[in-house]
Design a protein that fits this description.
With 114 residues, the chain is of the alpha/beta class. It has one domain (2-103). Helix content is 18%, strand content 27%. The protein is built from 2 helices and 7 strands.
Length: 114
């Protein structure tokens, strides 16, 4: 029970930190990131299918569409790419088309990032 409460609390704070996802900055250090992300090899393994947009306006307020920012101060959320799937808070798969970008699971973030 205690583990469930701690897990739920962690997820709540993580969701709040990503509440305006879209503009993403990739951190150099894991400790500075809002979310640890792992890029999976197959769509079926992902929590979120992400489309990387060329323009910030395409990504504003959308969890599944990311635009990489040059500076952390411009970003809505900061991420760190981890080497191991087990270290990740979120597993993503990068898609080629905007229409493919969608949440794949009803996980801890879905519906809370808008």
């Amino acid at each position: 029970m205690r583990k469930l409460i701690l897990y739920t609390t962690f997820l709540f704070f993580l969701a709040v930190s990503l509440s305006f996802a879209g503009g993403i900055y990739v951190e150099r250090y894991k400790s500075n990131a809002d979310v640890k992300v792992y890029v999976v090899d197959y769509k079926s393994e992902a929590d979120l299918l992400v489309y990387v947009a060329k323009y910030r306006s395409e990504a504003k307020g959308k969890d599944e569409i990311w635009h990489y920012e040059q500076y952390g101060s411009q970003a809505d959320a900061t991420i760190y790419f981890v080497k191991y799937k087990s270290d990740a808070d979120l597993k993503i798969y990068i898609v080629d088309y905007k229409s493919e970008a969608v949440w794949r699971t009803s996980n801890k973030f879905r519906g809370r990032l808008q």
